[in-house]
Design a protein that fits this description.
alpha/beta; FAD/NAD(P)-binding domain; Polyamine Oxidase, Chain A, domain 2; seven-stranded mixed sheet; five-stranded mixed sheet; 23 strands
């Protein structure tokens, strides 16, 4: 007996949004407030995109994006509007620094416990990057006269050209290569690094963990997306990966898989693609996108990072007057932070294993990988770190609808070559995601800004042209 093909459910809207992460939901929310009919198609069985808060073995974990910095006013404003509370990351006590030779130093204050010469070089390189970030800005760094020069040299080469102090170069690289772009410093350009700094207001802000990792949302960052989705009701369709997008000057038809309930086809006047650029090619476009878009998308790729969660019966490090904040550019786990939940008696640490170090870890068995990672955390905080009650690895590189973390960035030469086109609509198709943001690039705040921006573009495109005044003699 032949199996019947599930029927296609047809829906009509003014705008179809592809992706129910913060960008897509903000776009949809903004459009609905303007009286537009919207349908949101989401491939996953949940909303939130790269924000994901879940309970694992009885422990509440922020599997995806989680922190808010004071300059992220779009996100802070939304959190306040939704009536949500925030709490500060625990930061009382001393920090731990692991030197290149493995020496462990406990220190207070914001300055790394390195030699005066190394500290002077860190400060000098920071000042150079701050100046470049201020000059080029986050909105159009590719338009600056220095753009091509900075974009055709890797960040690693640029750093070594500025300084012969290897420890200083590695410390600077830690906060962009490992901490943000999650790619080796030889794999992206100095211009991409400057954009990362400019998007956060300055490179100094990226160095300041008390600024960039300031606070969290009570109940998890995904709850922000869940609240927006609740407002939209059945306009959000889950488990519906878009497979084809037919487009013309008259509008679009987005067709998505729909599981047992059948496919979903949405006819609309405009479309907003609110997914990472690395997923654009998962959709078949009819007709094909312009050559420029095809080329542009091939020069963007995701980074790779393992976000490690270790939950203990109590935050034992605090008993030794340690904040849980740890750094070591040469360590397997380059950054560790106290990630204990709001009003939780247990203690949670979060650590990050980035780029090529993550590659090496994924060659190991799960047991060997866990042992190596916990041993690295124990180097900072002591043997008690070896035995968490709950251990979990966020591996976004294996996620079908993400394929990396935290966001996409250009290869050498790509930002100056294609940056000006990455947010340009193609016919009725608009783009919105944190990967394309200026302020808040790679962050939830940037995703929200891009969602609002795409919605404004759509509203402007849908507005009737002003009537021409007839001139009579």
């Amino acid at each position: 007996m032949s199996q019947q093909t599930p029927a296609t459910q047809t829906r009509e809207a003014v705008v179809v949004v592809v992706g129910a992460g913060p960008a897509g939901l903000m776009a949809a929310r903004t459009l609905v407030k303007e009286g537009q009919r919207v349908v949101v198609l989401e491939a996953r069985d949940r909303v939130g995109g790269r924000t994901w808060s879940d309970t694992v073995e009885g422990a509440f974990l922020e599997i995806g994006g989680q922190w808010i910095s004071p300059d992220q006013t779009e996100l802070l404003g939304l959190v306040d509007e939704l009536g949500k509370e925030t709490f500060q990351r625990y930061r009382e006590g001393q920090s731990v620094y692991m030197a290149p030779d493995g020496t462990r130093t406990v220190y207070s204050g914001s300055e790394f416990p390195v030699s005066p010469g190394t500290l002077a070089e860190v400060e000098r390189l920071t000042a150079i990057l701050d100046q470049l970030a201020a000059e080029l800005g986050p909105e159009e760094p590719w338009a600056h006269p220095k753009a091509r020069e900075l974009d055709t040299v890797s960040f690693e080469q640029w750093l070594r050209a500025q300084s012969a102090n290897e420890e200083a170069c590695n410390l600077i690289g830690l906060f962009i290569a490992g901490g943000m772009l999650t790619k080796p410093a030889h794999a992206f350009s100095a211009l991409q690094a400057v954009l990362m700094a400019a998007s956060a207001g300055s490179f100094s802000n990226l160095l300041d963990e008390d600024f960039i990792l300031d606070r969290r949302v009570v109940g998890g960052m995904q709850s922000v997306s869940e609240a927006m989705a609740a407002e939209l009701g059945d306009a959000v369709v889950l488990g519906a990966p878009v497979r084809t997008l037919k487009w013309s000057d008259q509008g679009v038809v987005a067709t998505a898989d729909g599981g047992a309930s059948g496919r979903v086809a949405v006819t609309a006047r405009r479309a907003i693609l609110a997914v990472p650029p690395t997923l654009y090619s998962r959709i078949s476009y009819i007709p094909a996108l312009p050559r420029r878009q095809h080329q542009l998308h091939q020069h963007l790729s995701m980074g790779l990072v393992i976000k490690v969660h270790a939950v203990y019966p109590r935050p034992f490090w605090r008993e030794a007057n340690l904040s849980g904040t740890c750094f070591g550019a040469g360590q397997l786990v380059q950054e560790v932070y106290d990630n204990t939940n709001h009003r939780d008696d247990r203690g949670t640490l979060v650590g990050f294993v980035s780029d090529e170090k993550a590659d090496a870890m994924f060659l190991l068995s799960p047991e060997a990988r866990k042992a190596a990672i916990l041993a690295s955390i124990a180097d900072y905080l002591g043997e008690e770190a070896l035995t968490p009650e709950v251990y979990y690895e966020s591996d976004w590189g294996s996620e079908e609808w993400t394929r990396g973390a935290y966001a996409a960035s250009f290869d050498l030469g790509g930002l100056s070559r294609y940056g000006a086109d990455q947010r340009t609509p193609v016919g009725p198709i608009h783009w919105a995601c944190s990967d394309l943001a200026a302020e808040g690039y790679q962050h939830v705040d940037g995703a929200l800004r891009m969602g609002r921006r795409a919605a404004a573009e759509v509203i402007e495109a849908l507005s009737p042209a002003p009537a021409r005044l007839r001139v009579t003699s």
